[in-house]
């Protein structure tokens, strides 16, 4: 006997959205530095029990500067970067500030449980592990 699985008419569009993200992620060279600080590259891995998102976030040193929200089938990563450099010489003083903020929303390929989500920040990589919800099959 076959199980009935709900039809998702938008499932095919997930791959199209990924293609658009890849296509429009290339930025002219003049804006390369700005884009590298605000664009978060994400790699998704899926197993039977969990989804793992590995995010490359350059310039963010502390987990406190990152917010992760998972609602329905959407994960949103928001972060801020506040840096300053100071150069003191005998006859001059120079101080520069960089204030940046980014946000990236990713459509998840399946439903995940809101409890049990773990995030680990090491270097420039943020790893988010999300347990998958069990599919409810209708007999």
TrEMBL record:
InterPro entries xref list: A-crystallin/Hsp20_dom, HSP20-like_chaperone, Small_HSP
Gene3D superfamilies, sorted: 2.60.40.790
Annotated ranges, domain SHSP: 33-139
Family: Belongs to the small heat shock protein (HSP20) family.
Protein name: Hsp20/alpha crystallin family protein
């Amino acid at each position: 006997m076959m199980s009935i699985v709900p039809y998702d008419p938008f499932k095919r569009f997930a791959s199209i959205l990924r293609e658009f993200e890849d296509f429009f992620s290339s930025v002219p060279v003049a804006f390369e530095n700005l884009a590298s600080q605000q664009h978060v590259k994400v790699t998704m891995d899926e197993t039977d029990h969990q989804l793992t998102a590995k995010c490359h976030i350059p310039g963010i040193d502390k987990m406190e500067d990152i917010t992760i929200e998972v609602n329905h089938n959407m994960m949103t990563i928001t972060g801020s970067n506040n840096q300053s450099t100071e150069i003191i010489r005998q006859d001059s003083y120079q101080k520069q500030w960089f204030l940046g903020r980014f946000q990236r929303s990713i459509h998840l390929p399946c439903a995940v449980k809101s409890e049990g989500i773990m995030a680990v920040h090491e270097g420039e990589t943020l790893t988010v592990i999300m347990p998958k919800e069990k599919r409810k099959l209708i007999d």
